[in-house]
Amino acid sequence: xxxxxxxxxxxxxxxxxxxxxxxxxxxxxxxxxxxxxxxxxxxxxxxxxxxxxxxxxxxxxxxxxxxxxxxxxxxxxxxxxxxxxxxxxxxxxxxxxxxxxxxxxxxxxxxxxxxxxxxxxxxxxxxxxxxxxxxxxxxxxxxxxxxxxxxxxxxxxxxxxxxxxxxxxxx
Length: 171
Known about the structure:
By secondary structure, the chain is an all-beta fold. It has no helices and eight strands.
């Protein structure tokens, strides 16, 4: 599983040329694999979008989750159209709290006309935290067969230093 984990270096390690990292394993399996470790000084303002979804499949609610409810498909038969329930997560991989952050989702047709354009309420995301965003209004496609593109955009008050990781597109 790919995920962001962050840790703060002790102040005595900053600027040193010889610093060692130690990883501790805790689990019930007999092996452990670590790959692609990056040590970096984070940007001050950097939100990263992840887990973009248009169904509730895989969510942990209800408890226990119904793994066969609201499955995502690439194509839906006209007789089985359901409202899309857009949601996403954003991780603050910067070092400062990001204020008034929100998720905007648009559904565009083949002519690039917005058929749906909704934004969640604002929230603040502290450094290292992940926020969940769910739009309260769903989108039900027309029974007319067509091409749709869904765009997800994370916004915040601060100017993001890496805006390319604030967007995702499903098409």
